[in-house]
Amino acid sequence: MVSWPSTLITELAERRVVMFLGAGLSKAAHGAMPSWTNLLEQMAEKVLLKKDQDLIKKLIRYGRLLDAAELINSQILPADRRAILEKKFRLNPAPISNIYEDILSLDPKICITTNYDQLIEKNFEYFSGGTSAHQVRIFTYNNLISDLRSPARVILKVHGCVTDTSNIVLDRKSYFNAKADNPGVYETIKALCTVNTVLFIGYSMGDPDIQLVLEDINAKAKSDHRHYALVPKFEHPSLREANKHTYNVDFIEYAKDRHDLVPAALSELKDAVVATRASSGARV
Predict the structure, then answer these.
(1) What are the C-alpha distances in Å from 50 to residues 57, 70, 82, 113, 135?
(2) CB 2, CB 183: distance < 8 Å
(3) Which of the chain's ends, N or C, has fewer CB atoms near its CB within 10 Å?
(4) Mean pLDDT of 149-172
């Protein structure tokens, strides 16, 4: 089991945390959901030339996921790409998991996700009895600042959503285009993550998503206040310390490949946060 830092519990209780939710969360909620690596491996099967397939597998093996995705996107038909994405991520009905009830109970004003699926919003709607105030926005949305200055709660999909596969961010080129074409949204995300505590759930430190965000924040705005990440256990303590120093993150670790431990860990976190709010007289 994991040990949640008291500082993080206090930050969550006082609603000063931005939640960054990754593919590991979806997989913990529904085991059939693919990781990014799994998705790329399945998409690679649609590449015609074996030499290109072999190169993609090599890139994936060495952790060069953006390059693997770039090669895949250049070699498969858009129709094949859309069919794979919809088959993997457009689940109807959406699987229901108590993991999302616990996250909803934490009452984050903003959840940022790189996931294409609709598990977060569908589960929030289910567990709130259809009254969840979270509005779903994708990275092309132009009025994010207005939402943040209002009482609205937001689920921001920075890589797009399976409801519109033409806007999916998957490879290096689409990463660049998304940021170049929507600088206001990404600058807002950077600002949010600079002035708030961030809790990453469902990422490994090998994910380019978490690396790019944290490198940008930590290089430009040093802070004594750390962010937090619930991650699979590092192979060696020295790797954990190097990432802690580089990214200004405290890691809450669970056993490698044991995504099934995440729901119980989040349930414990929710209980601790709710108890802290109750003891301080804050709105639960």
Answers:
(1) 10, 16, 22, 34, 44
(2) no
(3) N
(4) 90
Sign of CA dihedral 14, 105, 266, 216: negative
Would you kindly state where each structural domain of the chain is located, as residue ranges? 6-30+95-280, 36-89
Cβ distance 155 to 111 under 8 Å? yes
| CATH 3.40.50 for domain 6-30+95-280 | yes
Give tens-digit pLDDT for 2-49.
889 999 999 999 999 999 999 889 988 998 898 888 899 999 999 999
This prediction has a pTM of: 0.90
| Secondary structure class of 19 (helix, strand, coil) | strand
Kindly state the DSSP code that residue 260 receives in the 8-state scheme.
Answer: G
Single-letter code of the amino acid located at 30:
H
Long-range contacts of 85-89 (CB under 8 A, 24+ apart): 85/116, 85/162, 85/165, 85/168, 86/162, 86/165, 88/33, 88/34, 88/39, 88/42, 89/33, 89/115, 89/116, 89/117, 89/118, 89/162
What tens digit of pLDDT does each residue of 173-214 get?
Answer: 888 888 889 888 888 888 888 888 999 998 877 676 667 777
